[in-house]
Amino acid sequence: MKLARVGVIAAAVLAVATLAWAQKTDFSGTWTLDAEASGAPAGGGGAPGGGGGGGGRGGGRGGGLGQGGTVKQTADALTVERTMGENKVTSTYKLDGSESKNTMMGRGGNSVESVSTAKWDGPSLVITTKMDMGNGPQESTQKWTVNGSTLTIETTNARGTQKMTYKK
């Protein structure tokens, strides 16, 4: 009887540990650029570029949430709302690794479609985006990581790698 109880307790502990390990990071919240930690000039150095697009413009910094934005996350999608110039931009990424399509304004007011995939890498989310802004295909990869109330988005594209830091 004692052995059976020990077995049930061990199974319960294993089930709880497995469930805790399987939980994914929640990126939800309103995030503001930490210009000093990002190495960006205060008040405008961060790119308003695509949250996942990474090919964003704005000081050539590319990627991230620009000066900040709001992230909403469900079990199957990540929705990013940010401001680019005077426009509010919303991008949604499926969290199951399948393609997500988003549209944003490109050069000359033309709309540009991006195709992204988002995949989990442990507690980090990696978003790979492809788009063509009129000068040939571009690809960027963003790695999103949260540590407490700090969000770090590391963007890698043809111009190199840039790390942007945001506070909740």
Give the arrangement of secondary structure elements.
Layout lengths: L1 H21 L6 E5 L1 H4 L29 E6 L3 E8 L2 E8 L4 E7 L5 E11 L2 E9 L4 E11 L2 E8 L2 E8 L1
Antiparallel strand pairs: 1-2, 1-10, 2-3, 3-4, 5-6, 6-7, 7-8, 8-9, 9-10
Question: Could you explain the architecture of this structure?
Answer:
This protein is mostly beta strands and 168 residues long. Helix content is 15%, strand content 48%. It is built from two helices and ten strands. It has helices spanning 2-22, 35-38; strands spanning 29-33, 68-73, 77-84, 87-94, 99-105, 111-121, 124-132, 137-147, 150-157, 160-167. Strands 4-3-2-1-10-9-8-7-6-5 form a ten-stranded antiparallel beta sheet. A hairpin with a 3-residue loop joins β2 and β3 (77-84). It starts with a helix and ends with a strand. Residues 10-21 and 44-62 have low confidence and may be disordered.
